[in-house]
Every structure is written in C-alpha cells, then in structure tokens.
Specification:
This protein has 1 helix and 6 strands. With 80 residues, the chain is mainly beta. It has one domain (5-79): Photosynthetic Reaction Center, subunit H, domain 2 (Photosynthetic Reaction Center, Chain H, domain 2), CATH 3.90.50. A hairpin with a 2-residue loop joins β1 (12-15) and β2 (18-29). The protein is globular, with a radius of gyration of 12 Å.
Length: 80
C-alpha cells in the first residue's frame, strides 16, 4: 500500500518499549526516488526531550491510520 509521506506528518511513533515521538520530516534520495530516513521529533515525548532522531525506513513495521501511529521495530536504548 502506498501512502503519501506528507500524510504521515505528526503520526506518533511507537517503539517496542513505548512512544518515541512524532514524524517530523523525511529525507529523500532524489536520484533513486526512495525515503532514506524518517525524522522523529521527540519534543512531546518523555524520552530525549527536544531532540530529533533519524530512523531508517527498514525499522518501520506498519502504519495504523485510524490511530495515526507508526510501529517501529526499535527500542529506546538502540535509538538514544
């Protein structure tokens, strides 16, 4: 299923051990037309307050449109 990246802005990111923030932006590779990184904004979370974290798209498990969540196959320890 294809979803526009713009539609995923502000979706909550759920890691294996809790929420890590919200989607802020995406880094695209314009040569190969692919997403290289997702930028997670942790300002509203209780983890790494006020930071931005790059997440590989390979870590994304699934998008839950109803709750505006994205499941991420990482832990807070790996990310920070």
């Amino acid at each position: 299923m294809l979803i526009k990246a713009k539609a995923l802005n502000s979706y909550k990111l759920d890691s294996l051990d809790g929420e890590i923030g919200k989607v802020k932006e995406f880094y695209f590779d314009d040569r190969y037309w692919t997403v290289r990184y997702l930028i997670a904004d942790t300002a509203d979370s209780s983890w790494l307050i006020g930071r931005q974290v790059l997440i590989s798209p390979y870590a994304l498990v699934g998008v839950i449109k109803e709750g505006q969540h994205i499941a991420v196959n990482l832990t807070k320890g790996i990310l920070g």
